[in-house]
Amino acid sequence: MSKMSWIKDGYKKVSDAVVRKIENPAKSGGGHFPTLEGHAAAQRHAEQVLETHGALREKMNNLKKEFKIYRWSPDHLHRKPFLQSYFVDLSKCGPMVLDVLQKIKGEEDSSLSYRRSCREGICGSCAMNIDGTNTVACLKPIDADTSKPTVITPLPHMYVIKDLVVDLTNFYQQYKSIEPWLKTKKPPPDGREYRQSIAERKRLDGLYECILCACCSTSCPSYWWNPEQFHGPAALLHAYRWITDSRDDFTDERLQALTEDETRLYRCRTIKNCTATCPKSLNPANAINKMKTKHLLSQPVEKTEDQIGRAFGES
Amino acid sequence: MKKKIQPKMNILRPLSPHLPIYKPQLTSTFPISHRISGAFLATILFFFYLLCLKIGLICFTYENVCQLIFYSSKLILISVEITALALSYHIYNGVRHLLTDFSGFGRKRWK
């Protein structure tokens, strides 16, 4: 019996030491609790409580999160782009990523460049890639997990002008090329305005809210590999907005302009990254699919037979 | 990558990172693995055709060929498993693709 208790005591001592080491590797002394003299287990318990309380208080006062932000300057051309780390106290900062950027620019490093305007997710200026997905910075809350850094880079596969500012001229040209205005052939029926029923206006919901932030187009791998030819989900969403508008008379011509060659619309491979990343929760993939359907269904059978006949040499 | 903004300044602008930093999501991994499995199946098909249909039974009289087949017999089992995985994935994804692409064909159209 004495042998068993010796083994048990030894085992308990070793396991206690190991557990203590795992749970508080830094300190081994802990606090001194005079009321708990003689109760080793209670003293250990009290030490653990003290330590977790200290860690909690420390975390509450100092929620420092690391932000790794993409930097490149045209003033220092020889330097390659790099990720610079900034540490921001989250308890003294607003909830959105844009607040963090403003704080860094105001207090730490005023050379950090980014576009911003409305701070409420309606202008689309502050679009950037945060933690791997494209969103507008003013609508993206900071991930409160302070153990992992947040990586902020500019919109993917775009030429960088400085830091987080990219060149969007190609994107705007593509939007211009789909002719985003009302084109009619006849004057208004009563001479005053082009009328539209409620059901017809409802067709435009989910299409007109696009803020042209470029998040969807720059998330599409098909747009990465062919930016000059493929129009991109944003421009195509707007093209569909004008095609479905019942007041617009040039539907067939708009569709034909998009489908003349196979690159403007049909480079879409339904990857659907655009819908997943849209900060306004719109669905460009759906709009593109509807346009493809409309185009494929609009070929009447008589015309195709006639074309086949001509191809085989008949008159 | 050269961009002329003033006649005397030629600035070489970097391209912002795309593949290394973009988060791999469900929407983006499905199409690329569809393409990869399709390419894999095409090469398997091509080599199978060359190997089994074109080569002729005379090859078994060569000692090296019998040795090769003996030593790679375990590998064939693994590659059959992988091919089956690729084929099933490709078929399921292809059917899903067809269904989503042609989902608008049955509905009532407004024009």
Automatic annotation (TrEMBL), chain B:
UniProt pathway: Carbohydrate metabolism; tricarboxylic acid cycle
UniProt GO molecular function: electron transfer activity; metal ion binding
Membrane topology, record value: Single-pass membrane protein
Residues reported in the UniProt entry to bind heme: 90
Top-level taxon of the source organism: Eukaryota
GO biological process assignments: tricarboxylic acid cycle
Stated role: Membrane-anchoring subunit of succinate dehydrogenase (SDH).
Subunit relationships: Component of complex II composed of eight subunits in plants: four classical SDH subunits SDH1, SDH2, SDH3 and SDH4 (a flavoprotein (FP), an iron-sulfur protein (IP), and a cytochrome b composed of a large and a small subunit.), as well as four subunits unknown in mitochondria from bacteria and heterotrophic eukaryotes.
Entry GO terms, CC: mitochondrial inner membrane; respiratory chain complex II (succinate dehydrogenase)
Protein name (Swiss-Prot/TrEMBL): Succinate dehydrogenase subunit 3
InterPro entries in the record: SQR/QFR_C/D (IPR034804), Succ_DH_cytb556 (IPR014314), SuccDH_FuR_B_TM-su (IPR000701)
Provenance organism: Erythranthe guttata (Yellow monkey flower)
Transmembrane segments: 39-62, 68-92
Required cofactor(s): heme
Gene3D superfamilies (alphabetical): Fumarate reductase/succinate dehydrogenase, transmembrane subunit
UniProt keyword annotations, A-Z: Heme, Iron, Membrane, Metal-binding, Mitochondrion, Transit peptide, Transmembrane, Transmembrane helix, Transport, Tricarboxylic acid cycle
Cofactor mode of binding and number, as noted: The heme is bound between the two transmembrane subunits.
Subcellular location: Mitochondrion inner membrane
